[in-house]
Amino acid sequence: MTHLVVREALIDDAEEVASVHVRSWRAAYRGLIDQKILDGLSIPDRAAAWRGFVVEPLPTTLALLVAVRDGTVVGWTSFGSGRDEDGSADGEIYGIYADPAAWSSGVGQALLAAAEERLANAGHSRAYLWVLDGNDRADAFYGRHGWAADGVTKIEERPGLTLAEHRRVKMLRH
After folding, report:
1. Rounded to an integer, what distance in angstroms lies between the CA atom of residue 143 and that of residue 164?
2. Cα 20 to chain center, whole Å?
3. Looking at the whole model, is its pTM more than 0.90?
4. Are 82 and 75 in contact (CB under 8 A)?
5. Which pLDDT tens digit goes with each residue over 6-33?
6. Helices 14-28 and 43-55: crossing angle, nearest 10°?
7. Of all helices (H) and strands (E), which one includes residue 132?
8. Which three-class secondary structure state does DSSP give residue 41?
C-alpha cells in the first residue's frame, strides 16, 4: 500500500472531493436514503459547492482536509467549532468521507486523527459528530475510535430529504 498524505484541501481538489462525496453517499446510504436522491447527486454541482467552501468556509470552520494516495484524493473531512446551540463550545466534525474503494484502508482513521488533533489544538476539549440512523458501518468505525453515542438525536431537513441522526461525542487530548 502506498503512503497516505493528509493535507489542507485546495480549490483544485474540488472535483475529486465531490466525486468522493457522491460515491461515498451512494454506497454508505443505500437503503437509508431514497435511491432517487442518491441517483440524483451531481459531481459537478458538489464540486461547485466545494469550491465555494474552500474559498469562503463557514465562519466556524477550522479546516477542510483531504487524504491523498498516489496523487488522488481518496477521502476528506471538514470540521470546526460546534454549530449546535448546546455544543457551541465543542468542536464538531461536519463530515468525513472516504472513497468506498478505500474503505478499511486507514483513510478514515487518518482523517479522523488529524481532525481530532486540529480540534484539540484549537482549544476544544470535546467534540461531536452526527451519524445517520442505520449507518451501522459508521457507528462501528466511530465506536472503535472512542466516539460514544450520548443519546441526543435530531431530524435534519434538507430540500426533498429528511435525515434522522444521532450524536457521538469524544473527549479530546490536549
Report:
1. 19
2. 11
3. yes
4. no
5. 999 999 999 999 999 999 999 999 999 9
6. 120
7. strand 126-132
8. coil
